[in-house]
Amino acid sequence: MKASLPCPHCHAALAPSEILAASTAFASEGRLLALHCPRCGRDLQAQARPGHVAIGPTVEHADDFRPSASAAAPGLVVTVEGEVLTCRYHGREHRFAAPPGRAQPPRG
Q1: Which of 7, 9, 13, 84 would disulfide-bridge 42, Cβ 3.0–4.6 Å?
Q2: Among 33, 38, 22, 75, which residue's Cα sits nearest to residue 56?
Q3: Residue 1 or residue 56, greater confidence
């Protein structure tokens, strides 16, 4: 069975691959991706970590992010180099740059 995460707004089931494909940018603090739900178009945020994806409503500060759903994504490889987050999943590579002036340094 494939993992899916329900949109916190419309509850449509979203596969991790759909979440990555719909994402447009990231905030380096918290590694949060910005996206619009492919079904209802409302703003979401996602957090990609190796082998794991979480989604939730948009928050202003990464520390406030509380995922509404999370799922294992076996094979998801996540790397950060400078201001670019790269996700490799099911043979596809997704690269996300932090918007100018919006990136924040990771906390040690």
Answers
A1: 9
A2: 33
A3: 56
pTM (predicted TM-score): 0.85
30 phi and psi, to 5 degrees?
85, -5
Instruction: Write 91-100 long-range contacts (CB < 8 A, 24+).
Output: 92/17, 92/20, 92/21, 94/20, 94/21, 94/23, 96/23, 96/24, 96/25, 96/26, 96/33, 97/25, 97/26, 98/25, 98/26, 98/27, 98/28, 99/25
Q: Per-residue pLDDT for 29 more than 60? A: yes
Sign of CA dihedral 12, 16, 21, 25: positive
What distance in Å separates the CA atoms of residue 45 and residue 33, rounded to the nearest whole number?
A: 5
Bridge partners for 84 per DSSP? 81, 97
